[in-house]
């Protein structure tokens, strides 16, 4: 990762990367709609509480903007976060020293090594948990991304404990 340079997640982001004003995809020509990223727990929960801001994957993505977080194996989505950047490919040292990852995940990398031949970090900001999990239609064969055309983030109620009071998305 750029030699010895460590990434300070929030300080290294441009103002536009720190958050998006609307719940719309970042590319206005993208007709695929809202995307869901399938994440196993406990990492999905840690993303939505802000404890974890990097999600580790074996491929980069061009997707940016709001991404709904689906917990693997549940058929439900639990919240949304803004995917603002993809870092990598990363080295093992980048992962085991990354403050952007929870300690248990860093320990897992120390024990098991790099999870992929080329390892990338999807960088998330502004996590928001839904007030309750929502069902979604999981297509056969989907293991990383799902299209969630049926969801409108303007109509979702968010967990009040994450904000100190009941909140709805602002479009």
From TrEMBL:
InterPro entries: ASCH_domain (IPR007374), PUA-like_sf (IPR015947). Coiled coil: none annotated. It holds the Pfam family ASCH. Residues 37-134 form the ASCH domain. This is ASCH domain-containing protein. It comes from Mycolicibacterium alvei.
